[in-house]
Write a structure and sequence with these properties.
By secondary structure, the protein is an all-alpha fold. It is 75% helix and 0% strand. It has a single domain, classed as Hydantoin permease, CATH 1.10.4160. The structure holds tryptophan.
Length: 449
Amino acid sequence: MTHPASEHWASRHGFVLASLGSAVGLGNVWRFAYVAGENGGGAFLLVYIVMVVIVGLPLLLGEFALGRSTQRECAAAVHAVAAVSSPWRHVGLLGVFVSALVLAYYAVIAGWVLRYLGLYASGHAASLAGPGARQAFDAYLADPLLPIVGQAVVLFLTAWVILRGVKRGIESLNLVLMPLLGLLLLVLAVHAATLPGWRAGLRFLFAPDWSVLSHPQVYLAALGQAFFSIGLAMGVMITYGSYLAPDQPLPRAAVTVVAGDTLFALLAGLIIFPAVFSFGLDPAQGPGLAFVVLPQVFAQMQAGAWVGMMFFLLLSIAALTSAVSLLEVPVAWASQRFRLPRRTATLVLAALLLAAGIPASLGYSVWGDWVTSGGRRVLDLMDVVAVDMLLPLNGLLLSILLGWVWPREQALAATGLSPHAGGRLWHAALRYLLPGLMGTVMLTSLWRL
Ligand code: TRP
């Protein structure tokens, strides 16, 4: 048997900010912008918001509740509610595995972000103007070593925060960085409103193209993006919930995190799309959107070097607070499960994750010839496996676990909802709506492969 978490948040405020810090990340800026761009903008946004409210919110509340009431990290928390011999008790391990898989490539992309921050901060962004942006990005990725250095720096910083512990590391980091992040976002959003492409950007993001609603992959994309952006189905929110004292109310925290995360993605869209349209570039650019299109935009703007620096600073902060949450899951698991000192668990896992992420980097240089038939490289492949397959699968399993395996009274008591209206709705959502919806979305997309 593993023992309960020995660490706790110093304040409720710290817990909410840390969860928001986990939610707001590359997913809101880099991933949201290109997934919305590829899936038609407005109509995707609508499906996305529906998914966030009906799937994201109940599941987030369930994860917080499971963590807080068991006071254990994700794998042990699941173990604690499943019967001793039931196969359900292993479901939590999937979360540990997926968060490690995501962090392995997340750190690679965060490394690119740091590199771009460095270019802007040291006044070297001039080379990123016009078509030079694509060449510069490709040349950087084609270097076998440089991106790995960036990835290593990210993992080093992440491990350093984790080594300092929950209160002095994760919580302090978020207390300082999240307000700064909000400020940067507001400055950039106000600036975007002065651009000539503002209206075109708004139209793209808010005017629905209903025809995309007939494509099943839009629903899967929206579901995967909602999981990724809020940070669900990987045990992060279970683990963060486990550091909460038992008397803290949860529903408000869950609403704050979901609303804050969605608002952040919308504002990021309002920063990115007006800029893209102002300079006649294409929003459906795939993962290179932030690194190829935006530098061209910044190069043509007044004070673009400053705007670019602020943008990449924002992205670096958002990425770091999320990477920290992803590393905390396997570290909490290893240290509670094997009674390892936190220090050993952190160092060993960071080294393993560095090794696991290196192929994602090399997929753009020495292993550049290795591309799947769909044109995917190693990094895209890791993202597809994690976000389009394992996250919805784990989300499905978790909602069944929370709705069916965890005894109803215990589950309701753990959320702090009233057992009548709110609680009943929440439980019914986990029991019927989520499994039904996720099962349907997954089956239809498998069907069409
Ligand atoms: N939510 C983060 C983002 O938007 C990434 C992240 C952190 C995440 N924790 C997670 C994704 C857990 C999935 C699951 O970038």
